[in-house]
Specification:
heterotrimer; A mainly alpha (119); B alpha/beta (332); C alpha+beta (501); A: 119 residues; two-stranded parallel ribbon; 38% helix; B: 332 residues; alpha/beta; Rossmann fold; 3 domains; two-stranded antiparallel sheet; globular
Chain lengths: 119, 332, 501
């Protein structure tokens, strides 16, 4: 499967396992975008996992927007194990979108430059 | 741990704080006398002599513990925290502001410029045609004055110095405080980095827990002023956003006893890195629909997710603050 | 001091290292007399900005975090602003519960100040050594039994606050249109018992004031001295008969000669109150808008005004309860009529108010309607804008909210108790410095006097800059015309004094 080299893939057993903390951690550690791929509604091996993911995603997107992170940087796609082509297409599409937005450039407080002149 | 000769020396100090933590100590009432007898309190409001110069000249590590409340907001507070860290064997973050940033941490949705703009220029009662702003260095008629730097970002203590223990709460209750102080005196402290309160969710000690349904799903989310609030039933079951399921226990559910929902002031349990995200997850879990449109409708009944989920913990969260570019562009 | 790490560079001038205290900078001229004194508040948190975007109904609990010593004051002003915002009238019992809760809090806070905060100044005495000028010195003066009584009284009052409002530090009872919880017959009995005890306690405190303070001629002379006197306007909340009321009514302002200058409802405050900014302090200075800012000066032509116990008594025509009214009469008879301009008389006025708060607490506790369960009126109107005012222990407190149609705060403006006094405090400090420091001579204890001028206002800088707590530590520095430091004095949070000269 070939997709843009800038994508880092992290596998979990179910999209319901994707804790919002993972997403925030990814952004904090330097990711410019996060894509969550889950099984189609009704296909979840664990019954409700992908629906839980959907609910969290919708709420998390609002929080990110309030914190100044554009909605397009977080994306949820329903992709089944056999849809390799779709995975490639979505990743490439999202890469283009993120390129258009530019790097996220979050500053940790330690990098806050504060200078006060000594007398 | 070295045992200094005589009674162990402790210090109480505050940064960007409201004084509620200090009041909580005074609320120990008669029990305070036991505490005062067992400790040599080097400085503490209303108590005995404190000489800062003496503290500065003390050997490093000669204080058993410093209890510091309040978040770090100015250059001067940062300096005091660094000083006390050097002088103390143990540094204890006292209260929500010191632990996770507290309510003043909501200022991380803004920066110095936007805050100054509102307070000193835009406010409807402020008359300031020349646009005067507070300055760090002021020269007036040949006289020099100064103010500490007001940073853009609020920080909890552990983003400035290493913190040994945390006493949670806004404010911590007298019971939690007493328990922590007694553990300190008996040398019965848990591993460093621990929060000195029970490590379980508030729901487990809530007086209304028997009325909390096994499977809880909300078709509607209510704001407290929109509904009559039953004085006996689980608040979450009544559709109110009570953060009990995600918040650390130890407060004896005082707000619930006041018939209002928990807002999360005791912070997270130990297995959580980002408290607001945890709360978000818990709220999403009980949203009663799998249909995208309906989910959006229910969630739209939470008018301010960031303020609700991160009320006390924004500075300690993974993202810490609103992105600066978003402020510059006028977004957010 | 310099810190270099990562890409951050902070250089802090060593002279400014001792901040976080209220700072007083005194500048001498060539003759060694005081040219100018500045009172600086070095703290700020920015509540008025980060309240934007928050649901209005959360404001009672968010704004209470402005001050943990008087959270109830913010909580109540905020709750009343919500009533106005939603155009909803609480049922009668809810108003009674709120005022009862508020009176209980006022008893507790005024007592806290008398015994723990301001008390050391005047109970122990201004010339007492620093080691004795703290609560333990007060207890030594009045006796250990009294000390235990004070602690027990405070505890019982705090228990009432918890029973009615959830918790004493940052209560939860306030909602637009009512309160969160009703009062049961058991709790009513508990309140009645404590209220009765509170009245006795207040009378006892007044006796202490008479026996210990008024018998101390040094202190009485200080109270009456010109150094601690300012002739300004006075502001306070009054009821329909112009008697002091902490919870509701009209805001009344009297001129320096005691005549009524204004009487208005909270929502009209924009026409009366304005704020002035100086670059050397984070706190803004309130003044009367129609008169204008003329600088840090006294008199009828200056917009500077004063709030808190002395101002409230001056701005009123009496107290609404019998024992307090008697104490009020005695206060003015002793000090030579109305208005009283002596700043240190605040301590006495505070005890008069303590008595009123206790009597009012009992009146409300005895009300048969108090246990009525109908404590809420649900709002139905679309919110837009609302103003609420109460009398905080330290003065008039105003909350003003503008929201969208969902009740989300768009803009907020707060006029906070001690802020109203900021200008007068600065003037008191400068006047005391000028009056007491002359010809390069800085006698022992003089800097303490300067500090007393400031402490009489019981300033809560947590509120004033919406930043620091009540018993503010203080740093005073005296410099000669070349800028060299001649003397420094520091008072820490615990009340202890340290000087280098």
């Amino acid at each position: 499967m070939k997709y843009a080299p800038n994508a880092r893939v992290i596998r979990v057993m179910c999209s319901g396992r994707v804790d919002p903390q993972f997403v925030l951690d990814a952004f904090a550690l330097g990711a410019d975008g996060v894509l969550i791929g889950g099984c189609h509604p009704g296909d979840c091996h664990y019954m409700e996992g992908n629906y839980k993911c959907l609910r969290r995603f919708l709420l998390l997107r609002r929080v990110l927007r309030e914190l100044g992170i554009e909605e397009e940087r977080l994306r949820l796609e329903w992709i089944s194990a056999s849809e390799g082509e779709k995975v490639r297409a979505v990743i490439n599409d999202m890469t283009e979108t993120i390129r258009g937005l530019g790097p996220l450039r979050l500053e940790a407080p330690e990098r806050e430059a504060v200078e006060v002149e000594a007398s | 741990m070295r045992q200094p000769a005589g009674k162990p020396k402790v210090a109480f100090y505050w940064c960007a704080s409201c004084g509620g933590c200090e009041e909580a100590v005074v609320d120990l009432a008669e029990k305070i006398l036991d505490v005062v007898q067992a400790l040599d309190i080097v400085f503490w409001p209303v108590a005995l002599d404190f000489k800062r110069a003496d503290v500065e000249s003390m050997p490093d590590g000669s204080l058993l513990a410093s209890f510091i409340n309040g978040a770090v907001r100015t250059s001067e507070q940062e300096e005091m925290v660094l000083l006390l860290r050097r002088k103390s064997q143990l540094l204890i973050a006292f209260g929500a502001c010191a632990q996770i940033g507290g309510v003043p941490g909501l200022a991380n949705l803004w920066d110095r410029e936007s805050i100054f703009h509102r307070i000193y220029l835009e406010s409807p009662t402020t008359v300031n045609p020349e646009g005067v702003l507070p300055q760090v260095r002021i020269q007036e008629d040949g006289r020099e004055l100064s103010l500490p730097v007001f940073y853009d970002t609020v920080r909890p203590l552990d983003q400035v110095v290493e913190v040994d223990y945390y006493i949670p709460g806004c404010a911590p209750t007298p019971k939690v405080i007493l328990h922590a102080v007694q553990a300190l005196l008996r040398g019965e402290l848990p591993p460093r980095g621990s929060v000195l309160a029970p490590d379980r969710a508030l729901c487990e000690e809530c007086p209304r827990r028997d009325t909390k349904p096994e499977k809880l799903l909300l078709a509607e989310i209510r704001r407290p002023h929109e509904v009559f609030i039953d004085e006996g039933k689980c608040l979450l079951a009544q559709g109110l956003l009570c953060l009990g399921p995600a918040t650390r226990a130890g407060c004896e559910a005082l707000c619930i006893q006041g018939n209002m929902p928990c807002t999360g002031c005791f912070g997270p349990t130990s297995r959580v890195r980002d408290f607001g995200a945890k709360i978000l997850s818990a709220v999403a879990s009980i949203t009663g629909s799998n249909d995208e449109q309906e989910i959006e409708r229910i969630l739209s009944q939470i008018p301010d997710p960031v303020g609700t989920f991160y009320r006390y913990s924004l500075p300690a969260s993974l993202l810490r603050r609103r992105r600066r570019e978003a402020l510059a562009e006028g977004k957010g | 001091m310099s810190m270099e790490g990562k890409t951050r560079r902070i250089t802090i001038d060593p002279i400014s290292r001792l901040e976080g205290h209220g700072k007083i900078e005194i500048f001498l001229d060539e003759s060694g007399n005081v040219e100018r004194a500045y009172f600086q508040v070095p703290e700020l948190r920015g509540f008025e900005k980060f309240m934007e975007g928050r649901p209005a109904e959360e404001m009672p609990q968010i704004t209470s975090r402005i001050c943990g010593v008087c959270p109830t004051a913010h909580h109540m002003a905020s709750t009343k602003a919500l009533d106005a915002l939603y155009q909803v009238d609480p049922p009668p019992v809810a108003k009674k519960i709120r005022e009862l809760f508020y009176s209980t809090f006022m008893v507790e806070d005024h007592a806290l100040h008398f015994y723990f905060l301001g008390g050391p100044d005047f109970v122990v005495g201004p010339s007492a050594p620093p080691q004795e000028r703290n609560v333990l010195g007060v207890i030594a003066k009045v006796g250990v039994e009294v000390g235990q009584k004070v602690i027990a009284m405070r505890r019982k009052l705090r228990e009432i606050l918890a029973a009615v409002g959830g918790k004493p530090v940052h209560p939860v009872l306030g909602l637009p249109g009512g309160v969160a919880k009703r009062i049961t017959p058991e709790v009513q009995k508990q309140i009645q018992a404590v209220a009765a005890e509170a009245i006795g306690f207040a009378q006892f405190t007044l006796e202490i004031f008479h026996d210990v303070v008024l018998q101390n001629t040094d202190y009485v002379n200080l109270i009456l001295s010109d150094v601690f006197t300012h002739r300004t306007y006075y502001m306070g909340l009054v009821d329909q008969d112009n008697r002091v009321n902490f919870y509701d009514g009209w805001i009344r302002v009297v001129s320096p000669d005691g005549k009524e200058w204004a009487r208005f409802k909270a929502h009209q405050y924009l026409e009366v109150v304005a704020e002035h900014v100086e670059p050397w302090s984070y706190v803004k200075f309130c003044y009367l808008k129609p008169i204008g800012w003329k600088g840090f000066i006294d008199g009828a032509d200056s917009g500077v005004y004063c709030v808190a116990p002395l101002a409230r008594l001056n701005a009123s025509e009496g107290m609404a309860t019998p024992l307090a009214q008697e104490a009020y009469r005695e206060f003015y008879a002793t000090l030579g009529g109305k208005p009283v301009h002596h700043t240190l008389a605040n301590h006495w006025a505070r005890v008069v108010e303590l008595l009123y708060a206790a009597e009012r607490m009992r009146e409300l506790a005895d009300d048969p309607e108090l246990t009525d369960p109908h404590v809420r009126t649900l709002p139905t109107a679309t919110p837009r804008e609302g103003v609420g005012a109460v009398e905080a222990p330290r003065g008039t407190l105003i909350h003003h909210y503008q929201t969208d149609e969902r009740g989300i705060i768009q803009k907020a403006n707060l006029i906070v108790a001690t802020q109203n006094n900021a200008a007068r405090i600065a003037m008191s400090v400068e006047k005391a410095a000028k009056g007491l420091i002359t010809g390069h001579h800085i006698p022992e204890g003089i800097l303490n006097m300067v500090e007393m001028a400031f402490r009489a206002y019981d300033p809560c800088h947590a509120c004033a800059t919406h930043s620091l707590p009540g018993n503010m530590p203080l740093f005073i520095r005296v410099r000669d015309p070349k800028g060299n430091t001649v003397a420094t004095l520091r008072r820490d949070f615990d009340g202890s004094i340290h000087r280098d000269a």
